């Protein structure tokens, strides 16, 4: 069985406290946030957090189509920093704003066919520390968590989404906001799986 360490690498302090606070403030004030509804078992629900998207390409996710959208200048700078650090290109980023500990994200894997499986997903956290839970796809008893601190980078390596699901549960103790940015590489001309013979 895969270990967490094989598929995930955690780097605290990837951004300095000043860098992360500056970016958190800028993004909290930016007019980028939406609260779309997604379909879960046939019913539509507003997502329990706010979301934004920036990317060079379309992305289909949980029944939503996110169109190409201009990059916020500070997020663009971070994309360049990450591309240099990880030696791989990123053409999109999904941002989540957890306004308080009540906002959350349920169990899922970022395994849409559009996502380039040979690329890592780079996850940057700003603001309140929250627990990122992991469970192995085939072994639900294997469960771990990583505390994602302000300014940290979590690298989800190629293959991680095929082996693990992740979630960010609500936290009663946490009142402060948190923003997470997941930089992704999406295939430009995805073969649509429904079109395959
Ligand atoms: O907020 C987080 O740390 C996780 C976000 C996430 O899983 C996602 O955007 O797909
Ligand atoms: Mn995810």
UniProtKB/TrEMBL annotation:
Record carries keyword Aminoacyl-tRNA synthetase: no
GO MF term set: dioxygenase activity
Domain of life: Bacteria
InterPro entries linked: AlkB-like (IPR027450), AlkB-like_sf (IPR037151), ALKBH2 (IPR032852), Oxoglu/Fe-dep_dioxygenase_dom (IPR005123)
Domain Fe2OG dioxygenase: 89-187
One matching Pfam family: 2OG-FeII_Oxy_2
Keyword Oxidoreductase: yes
Gene3D superfamilies, A to Z: Alpha-ketoglutarate-dependent dioxygenase AlkB-like (2.60.120.590)
Keywords noted in UniProt: Dioxygenase, Oxidoreductase
Protein name as catalogued: Alpha-ketoglutarate-dependent dioxygenase AlkB
Native organism: Balneatrix alpica
């Amino acid at each position: 069985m895969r270990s967490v360490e094989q598929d995930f690498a955690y780097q605290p302090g990837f951004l300095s406290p000043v860098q992360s606070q500056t970016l958190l403030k800028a993004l909290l004030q930016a007019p980028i946030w939406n609260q779309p509804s997604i379909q879960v078992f046939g019913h539509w629900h507003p997502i329990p957090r706010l979301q934004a998207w920036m990317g060079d390409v379309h992305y289909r996710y949980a029944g939503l189509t996110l169109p190409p959208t201009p990059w916020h200048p500070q997020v663009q700078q971070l994309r360049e920093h990450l591309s240099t650090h990880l030696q791989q290109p990123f053409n999109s980023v999904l941002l989540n704003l957890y306004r308080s500990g009540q906002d959350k994200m349920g169990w899922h894997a970022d395994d849409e066919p559009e996502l380039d499986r040979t690329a890592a997903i780079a996850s940057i956290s700003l603001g309140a520390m929250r627990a990122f839970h992991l469970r192995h796809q085939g072994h639900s008893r294997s469960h771990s968590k990583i505390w994602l601190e302000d300014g940290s980078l979590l690298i989800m390596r190629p293959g991680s989404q095929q082996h693990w699901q992740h979630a960010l549960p609500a936290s009663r103790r946490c009142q402060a906001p948190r923003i997470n940015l997941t930089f992704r590489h999406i295939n430009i001309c995805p073969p649509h799986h429904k079109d395959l013979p």
